[in-house]
Queue: 4 jobs
Job 1
Amino acid sequence: MSYSEQLVDYRKTNHLTQEAAAKQIPVDRSLWNKWEKGLPVAEHHEPALSKANWKLALEVIEKQTGGWIKNRFGNVDPTPTALQLRIAMEMDELKRALGEIILSNDVDWSKRIDDLERLKKENDDVNEVSLVFKGVLAEMIQQAKKGGRQ
């Protein structure tokens, strides 16, 4: 689903007008309308969009990481369970790799620095997935609260 389709889906799922959705970011309604029609979202608006909805956060992360989620997950549905398992697996891999670096007798400092920088980037990727997971949970809580009032 494209960015613009995600915006329309978010707005309609939450029974919002373009004006109400735009106020949540906050941006002008006319800008929201342009986004829905395919105008690219400026980078400085992406954090607010990410906070609004986990699906939008996923689109932001896809754009910022050049497709990391799709490359990493393939066709896996980013449900809470799938995200939780992926985070756990990635953290285990990071801990193992860090342990290997720490225990290594290799005194080639440039190699050690390269390895640590690679691990830092991998950790950043895990943090991005964790933010999506946080958004998924927040949306589920919001939906449960709405369901409890009906």
Job 2
Amino acid sequence: MCKDSRSVDLNPTQSILAAIETVIFLEDKKSIQIETDIDTNIGTVMGDTVRLQQVIWNLLTNAIKFSEPHSKVIVSAKKVGKELVIKVMDEGKGIAPDYLPFIFDRFSQEDASSERLHGGLGLGLAIVRNLVELQGSTITAANLSGKGSFFTVRMPLTSLVSKNSTLSTKKKEINSG
């Protein structure tokens, strides 16, 4: 379980929505549309609100960075059995299948050439994996056959809510510049 002293039962919806609100103001000139499908009565998970928000923020900023202009990023959060399943999907070029096993390694970049289009040290997803695992959870990455990629975070629920309410297909457009 989470080793952090700030670990509490939390409603993950607030962390997810806060991360989405944060990326809306990125100075990204791509006009990316964020769609959400978030079950607002998921239950609670054991974790750290700030760290969960950092995880979602990092996944969203990567999705925006690697997406084509005027495309979509989709964020969903659903109760599946006794787990919260959070997915962040983009419409970028996807992740090369031979690179997928290394996506969460430190200092790992699919394009490590000096002419690469996107900056970074290759630490973001390694940190994300560490934060997710510290909360007793898992993260996986998958390729959508050249149509983007998706990341899935699975967190064990500590309490379940039976009545479902969905914040569905809420669209936000990132159009800064």
Job 3
Amino acid sequence: MKMRKQRLMGVGLLAISWLVLLLACTGESPEDQDATAALLVLPLGLYMVYSDDYLLYDGEPVARARDRPEAALLSPPYPQLFPREAGRSVRDCEGDLLRHRQRDRLRYGGGSRHRRREAG
């Protein structure tokens, strides 16, 4: 039933695009001959008619992993953002940040800014 609804809407969009093209062919001024709407609606109608995927939104969204309450148990809190809530001082968090930067420099090479020039 859902795919039938989508295909009927696609046929409706195709009919609208053909009406726009018909009106554009009979227009006398350049503004009356504009068929931009057909260029936007025709591909969408074709896609809705021939696609096997359901494109329309009907009702409630599907729950994502981050919306589940048990997902909070999987992701650790970030003490760098909220050091007081985690019982840590700001100085401890700054030390963690410096250690992570040093680790990344060693791991990824640090880029051209961090390379020392060799004495030549």
Job 4
Amino acid sequence: AVADHAASSGPNDPQTDWIYWHLPNDDAPGERGYRAWEADLLARDPSAAPAIYGAHDREILRRMTLFNWNGGDVAEGNYDQALPERGTVLRIRTTKPLPVAFEAQLADINLTSVVTSPATGEATLTGLPERLQVAGRFTGLGSDFAGAALHRGAAGTVGAEVVALDVTLTEDRRSGTIPAERNLFSNDDLRYEDALYLVVRSEMYPEGEVRGQLLLRPNLAPAAPLIETPAADSLLFTGMAQSMDVAWAPAPDPNGNAVVYRWQLAADRSFSLPVAEIPVGEASSFALELALVDAMLAGRGVPLGGSAVWYHRVIATDGSHAQAGPATPLRLGRGTLDDVPTAFALRGNFPNPFNPTTMLLVDLPERADVQVEVYDVLGRRVLTLDHPTAGPGDLRLPFDGSGLASGLYLYHVTARAASTTWREAGRMVLVK
């Protein structure tokens, strides 16, 4: 009906069903009218900015909106009426495929299972009239390539395979390209309206070594999630409950894509010493089983009544781009408060004599900064070791004498807590 309206003059776009309204007194009506409408939209709703960010989004809006080129808006209605007054916006839906493009970053963090892989890559899906085109590349698989395919499914879910992809491999079968000219599919095979992701499989990881969700360009990463519970530097004992709640503020996504999360625990702030990793899905909290934490502490040599400072964080991903939240310190103790020493004590070192490593045993009733100073028989200080914010608990402080000569050494252990300072001395024998 709109196409036959006497007041419309511009021809239809040959690839869509859109009609561009032209008013006699408007110069460059398309671009000028779009700019006016965009400015008016932002004035009314600044949060709409991400939705119209970038040239591609503007093209989508041009094809989703009919203007009489002076901005404003009006409710959708019957479009075969008399031409509305200036200051209205008309919306209509296309019946033909748009030339849109989707992109995906391929990485192990986008999988639903825990995989550690150095592999990376990227892919695109371009929607053209009558067909869809897939292209991309990947590099650095941990084992030989075993296949690549598009699957139907949202981020954080596992869906059925839709089409297998034709890949050109390098000689070592660990890297490859997905040539666009060999990966053309009809609209009967693929629908870009569906949630699609690309997965690359290897012999080591037959279910997938890297994955990427195909999302409308341009795509930006979600915000970094901030942990709210437990509070930073909290002291938690594994024997006080069956589980503890870990919660974080939901991470907004600038493109409005669904966000899924992954919780990580490490023995260091840089996460180069990972301890655990748990995919959580779209939820912004989960219950961490403390029996699992106790087993992890024991595996790292923390005794009953002892504690360790570890770090945890949450990674948010839209299935393509990922963003890690800051490392948050978490003080974990084995057992309960009843297992914590009630008084400071230096219980020597074991083994003694030793070559070249030993462990200094310290009972610490509350959190403190611990320093170990080592002296030779002439009273010269030969080594100083700092253990900031240690305890409380049964501490085992490692000592390495590789750089020292055989002989008798004295050591002083000083623990500075908020309420007091403790200091005791011991001796040890290094035999090489």
